[in-house]
């Protein structure tokens, strides 16, 4: 690092974005890697998004993360998308190439990386609750990683059917939408059960309508919620003898994948997880 060189800049744009933990996590990882990089958290309205992305280009940002409400709208301002981002129709991470920005989606990749610390997804039978942005990202990446099948359990028929169709028609794996009426019964042969809904976000006591008696010890159970990471759903799964994966692993890994895309360097994921836990007061 020389004092004559300019710092590299990346950012997170969203609204509302105060309280987003990415900056804290990323700046710790930059410091641990000895990189003179800065990560800015920027509140940007939907009306200002085009000017804000043009500003990133004009100022030579290396890339950035995009969060609610910009994950779909940002696509119109990018040069091209990766395969996963194109399938998902949403972008949470952009990186600069010579003449513009490329859109990627690291949410599902982060989930799969956390999953692979425990088990290989190939051939697994999956039950996925939810069909929103996070669930869609997870489902596409699980499909690209050749799971055997995905049951998409979702309240809204349109979103549920749309995701199941995407998986069968474009990703090429067995999938179906199952309406979520009352307490859902888990099939005995499910290998992986995922809460991809926002139930549990900021509410440790909130529980999914699931028949808890249908948990089996053989099931691996995951939750996307990272605040709090120990949800009532994961607790119930652990009480039934299942192995559980919390949403912090997904968050750390999606951040680590973005870090590697921008810098070319593998970050210290333990440093990132520690930073997150400190920020969230866990
Ligand atoms: P969306 O708003 O896009 O989707 C929300 C999903 O939750 C929908 O499928 C919705 O169902 C379902 N849902 C919400 N409330 C209920 C309910 N009471 N009963 C049944 N279903 C319900 O949100 P996101 O996908 O963007 O985010 C979901 C969660 O994922 C959030 O908690 C977010 O913090 C987390 N997340 C975690 C990440 C990580 O790295 N750990 C990364 C990204 C997100 P319906 O379609 O029927 O309305």
UniProtKB/TrEMBL annotation:
Catalytic activity field: shikimate + NADP(+) = 3-dehydroshikimate + NADPH + H(+)
Positions bound to NADP(+): 83, 130-134, 224, 247
Domain of life: Bacteria
GO biological process, one term: chorismate biosynthetic process
SUPFAM superfamilies: Aminoacid dehydrogenase-like, N-terminal domain, NAD(P)-binding Rossmann-fold domains
Keywords for this protein: Amino-acid biosynthesis, Aromatic amino acid biosynthesis, NADP, Oxidoreductase
Entry similarity comment: Belongs to the shikimate dehydrogenase family.
HAMAP family on file: Shikimate_DH_AroE
This protein's name: Shikimate dehydrogenase (NADP(+))
Annotated source species: Bremerella alba
């Amino acid at each position: 690092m020389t004092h004559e060189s300019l710092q590299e800049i990346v950012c997170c744009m969203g609204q509302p974005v105060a309280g987003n933990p990415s900056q804290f996590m990323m700046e710790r990882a930059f410091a641990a890697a000895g990189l003179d990089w800065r990560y800015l958290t920027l509140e940007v309205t939907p009306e200002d998004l085009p000017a804000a992305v043009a500003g990133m280009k004009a100022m030579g940002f290396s890339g950035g993360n995009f969060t609610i409400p910009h994950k779909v709208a940002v696509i119109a301002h990018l040069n091209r998308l990766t395969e996963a981002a194109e399938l998902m129709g949403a972008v949470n991470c952009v990186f600069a190439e010579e003449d513009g920005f490329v859109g990627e989606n690291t949410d599902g990749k982060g989930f799969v990386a956390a999953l692979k610390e425990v088990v290989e997804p190939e051939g697994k039978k999956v039950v996925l609750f939810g069909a929103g942005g996070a669930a869609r990202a997870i489902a596409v990446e699980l499909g690209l990683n050749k799971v055997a099948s995905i049951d998409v359990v979702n309240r809204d028929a349109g979103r549920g059917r749309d995701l199941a169709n995407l998986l069968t028609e474009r990703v090429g794996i067995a999938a179906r939408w199952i309406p979520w009426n009352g307490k859902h019964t888990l099939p005995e042969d499910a290998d992986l059960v995922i809460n991809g809904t926002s139930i549990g976000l900021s509410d440790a006591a909130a529980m999914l309508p699931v028949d808890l008696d249908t948990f089996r010890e053989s099931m691996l159970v995951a939750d996307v919620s990272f605040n709090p990471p120990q949800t009532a759903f994961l607790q119930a799964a652990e009480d039934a003898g299942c192995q559980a994966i919390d949403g912090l692993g997904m968050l750390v890994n999606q951040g680590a994948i973005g870090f590697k895309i921008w810098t070319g360097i593998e970050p210290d994921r333990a440093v990132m997880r520690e930073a997150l836990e400190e920020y969230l007061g866990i």
